[in-house]
């Protein structure tokens, strides 16, 4: 006997009518701020009640799919390998949302007695009551139950339930401090605090679990790149975040007195149209390059880890064709090969058509440590205004390409971060050397005058400039 389909269909029709009328009448646009806030709160409460129905339905699907005999399971009847696949197909949720629904359902669904078949309490009765009242949606349920579930079995069931009761009171706005109902983020903080208080030794088991699950893996190459996935230890993630914060904080500009300014005289920072994720990728690329050239990594065959790129002389001369990086099957462009070679050495290997090596020659084009220190002192950091990447994280770019006769000399080398070095040919900035001093011409969108301007973040040169003015 179907008890819910007709009421749910009627509810769906009502919601559709409310939505249609609201859109046609532009109800949100015409509402006052007070009315809009009230409408938003009601919409969210309807969503939380829908979440309650979703979690109960998913919980029942899970129960029917946990039978000992595979052929008797609901997943088998509907041709799905597991509950996650079934939930995704029916609800059209993504994998993460479907997994969250399963975790929430497990925490709040009532259990059935194996002997009598009667309903028993859920793992967190007060959380279930708040969910059925529309106080908690999926986010709120997981914010409370996930931290407390992580303490099992070290903390007794009764203690976990008591802690959940206290956090649910905060969700209802009935906490001891009389604060308004808490959002999911705040509920999670409350639940984590209780979990730490109840589980004094919990950090060590969690650390052991994190150590077991730590991993970084490169996926199969795609036409748009190589995917990376994995799980970092908390301290490793914190270190990476610190490096990203250091590299992605713009701090510099043109030499004082130069550059485009707004109506109030403030210097306009250059546009960086990279997404945050792209910026983090470029920062990681810089870190890998620095680590490989630091001399601190273990050697391979007696030499520092070296990225080897192969390309034919004909393709390099014509700027067509492809190059190949050692260890990867997918090709790279000649432009990428030139970027890699700009800060490295070139070894020319001449072979006959049958593959026999007939000549090996090496041309060193790497700025030595003394030159690098001098260039860092002169430039201060990446010479592109607004970048902010410090000297230690920069590569040295041959302003006049080595292949065109440019020397590996301080008068021909400037500091560029990985991003600006890699994409210098397409981002519109131009660099030249004027009597050993780097000058930059900005794109027209940034500086309509298209003037060459000296650039530096070196404290010594900035101070000298100020004293001259």
From TrEMBL:
Key words, A-Z: Endonuclease, Hydrolase, Nuclease
Alphabetical list of InterPro entries matching this protein: DUF222, HNH_nuc
Any GO molecular function: endonuclease activity
Pfam families: DUF222
Domain HNH nuclease: 370-422
Classification via CDD domains: HNHc
Protein name: HNH endonuclease
Source organism (scientific name): Microbacterium memoriense
Lineage: Bacteria, Bacillati, Actinomycetota, Actinomycetes, Micrococcales
